[in-house]
Amino acid sequence: MEYIMENATIFPGQGEKKKLVIKDGKVEFITGSVRLKRRIACNMERFVMAPGKIMMDRSLLQLENEAFKERLKSYQKIGCTTLLVICNVTKERKLPEEINNALDKMKNSSLDFVIGVSVPMIKVTPGLVQQCNKHLIPYIIAEPETEKDLQTVPWEWVQQKIFPYNAVIAPDLHKLHLPERKRILLEKQWKEISGRLTIPTNTTIPEMNEQIDFSLLKQIGIFPQKGRILSKSDLDYNLFPLIESMAFEEDEKVIYHKREPVYSVLRGQVMKSGEITYERPEFGQRLVIKRPGFFSTINKAY
């Protein structure tokens, strides 16, 4: 089905009214004042449209059925439409099994998802990276157990297997519970290693119930399919009353990240309307990332 969304104020943006042509759960294209052929149209002038929120969850896969459903419902309530779900891997040979388990679990998801892995840092091997490449895993959290782990991993060999897929390796240095001075020193060491070897990395690990930073969305490869309302992107959006959203430019985090939307939509399907959330088991799809970081240098105007 094809239709038009008229008078849409898109966030982030300059506040101009836009027309969106929608087809099969995607944005076909966006225009300003260009006249379009007659289609079914809906007027969006009372709302601000913001992209569906994208968040990370490190424990969802461990939850039993009812708790799993409740967790997903809580995400829908706050306007989250896509999850980066992390499966814990202890050994390289266990990785295919854990990924298959994650896929089985997420078959019942109402939200779209991307799969990442968390692994002890000393288990980050060339073989593990190869397995991640094979299974299209774009995000690897490396958890150190001691301060020495950073110097123990053969990063030169690991780097050789990262290319050409270029998964992001994120060291979770906060796991060590070090004094701030020591943690900053370790972070500096990692930046030197990753910079010298051109290892894609991001040292900011997303917190639960917090929107994933846009720079990381680009690194992982979730953008441009999701994360912004653009031509050819998925039709994932949240609606906020326009009068309440006037302060977006002044305090984006308070209004967009912290507030609950009035409506939330995933690929054209309503997931939340007012106080009602809609269970849509098996509606969620895996977002397969074929080229992490391909758009990571795109101008911040997006």
From TrEMBL:
It comes from the Bacteria. This is Uncharacterized protein. It comes from Exobacillus caeni.
